[in-house]
Amino acid sequence: xxxxxxxxxxxxLVRDHGAVRGLVEAVLAAEGLSGEVAVxxxxxxxxxxxxxxxxxxxxPTDVLSFDDLPSTGPGDGPWPGGEAGGAGTSGxxxxxxxxxxxxxVVRYAAxxxxxxxxxxxxxxxxxxxxxxxxxxxxxxxxxxxxxQELLLRLDGEVGALALAESTG
Length: 168
Hints:
The protein is α/β, with parallel strands linked by helices. It has one domain: Collagenase (Catalytic Domain) (3-Layer(aba) Sandwich), CATH 3.40.390.30. The protein is built from six helices and four strands, in the order βαβαββαααα. The chain starts with a strand and ends in a 9-residue tail after the last helix. Residues about 75-90 have low confidence and may be disordered.
């Protein structure tokens, strides 16, 4: 099973790209999937623009998932401008991009009284599960249950995550 994970941090707030890569790899392994995933960390303005464009929500969010594999149904499109099923996706079961906003992750953690590291872990797991085909908006709680299972199972990987202090 081949897994490729690229991490791009446009915020300068993610301390260890290797830890992010390791968590994505661990989630895919737990799901028994191979894949190619890019994780982009962006600021609130950038994710708000994407959220408005692709979800008609005029606000920043913590994570967006964009599937690069061919569409399997209405509304299941690839990353805009991407080549669905293009070069490098032969035999890959998951391919896509997660766009994460660390500032929103930290805000959500504060609102929930949660450690930002755990919130970032949940956010990454949530995004990868979307790429793996889970959908909390249409399932009967399976995705939320799987998120909790993976948070417990991958505690070491989640614990290795770190954000810079100046995320506010």
